[in-house]
Amino acid sequence: MEQSGEQQRSDEDYGYGLFPKRKEAKYKKGSVGESLFTFHNKCQLMLHFALETSPYAKFLLGVMKQSGCTAYQDRHFSCEDCDGTVSGGFDAATSQIVLCQNNVHRQSHMNRVVTHELIHAFDHCRAHVDWFNNLKHLACSEIRAANLSGDCSFGNELSRFNFGFKRHHQECVRDRALRSVLAVRKVTPEEAKKVVDEVFDSCFNDLAPFSRIPHSKNDVKFAFRDFQNRDRYYGNL
Amino acid sequence: MTAAAGAAVAWRPPRSCEDYWSEWKHCKSLWNRFHHYYAFGTSLTCRQWKADYEACREWEKESSAEAKELLQQSERARVAEQNKFAPVWQLRQKPPDDWYLPLDHSKPQDS
Q1: What is the pLDDT of residues B47-84, one digit of tens each?
Q2: Which of A91, A135, A212, A217 is the mutation pick for testing B, counting most B CBs within 10 A?
Q3: Where are the coiled-coil regions (chain A) (predicted)?
Q4: Does any domain span residue B58?
Q5: Whole-prediction pTM value?
Q6: In this structure, is residue B89 part of a structural domain?
Q7: Are B72 and A237 inside 8 Å of each other by CB?
Q8: Which residues in chain A have their CB less than 8 angstroms from residue B40's CB?
């Protein structure tokens, strides 16, 4: 798979087209007469609730804080209008998680999107991820985010009318990672599939900071316990 | 002042015995078996957690070298299993320099 350095595709926008507000001088204050129940306000409230109560989000925030990347709601998160059906994104140029206020309307969805994007932020914090020039890196983070956020839970797949069972989680992760890569990069489906396949084994099995694929809040509790215990664990191997 | 820095810390099992017990119980649960099959398409064997729990208790009672060896081997195998694929990227030594940089609110488009 050809990498950077070579002639870049002149029409590549790295997915920023899905987030039109990113390019504007966008931080206009709302008018005094603005309704209390705008999508923006609702998004901010749901985001705050997710950060305070979702075990997945709290765990990721805690681990990132330990690693030197404390995430603040007013600096590292932004509720914006987005194009299409995208729910959120991670902007590595500004270290910001974007939540699509016009496409996320339920708390459970917000919890899952926040978790998904926090995994990208966690990867950005702990590794030299070349988001813009290395498709393998992008694909890897998308595989991990689909795997560990609950995107591919049995219940979520059922709600999408995907009725697979045996090993279906992996098929879902592959499929969603592929879609995410195609959404933000101007590559052919064949190119995207090739890259996802190349990195799948490594990235599907990279469960950090979780010690197992979290299928429930209980799994997150176990992961948190393992994280707290890491010094003892590695010191006595 | 005596230098205590070089003193070896006494070995103890990588996890507490309660942790081995709860891992074994969790492993055997229907919920976990269901999701393991959903993720991996294989049946789960939980015997190793039970063996580790018993070795841990053995260590607590007798401080036996055999129990210590069993536990270390078991956990090293778990770590090896997690690390069997080469990572795609290089890990950082420190967080990104621009993580906390303030956003430029005043910057208009294309400046």
Answers
A1: 999 999 999 999 999 999 999 999 999 999 999 999 99
A2: A212
A3: none
A4: yes
A5: 0.89
A6: no
A7: yes
A8: 167, 169-170
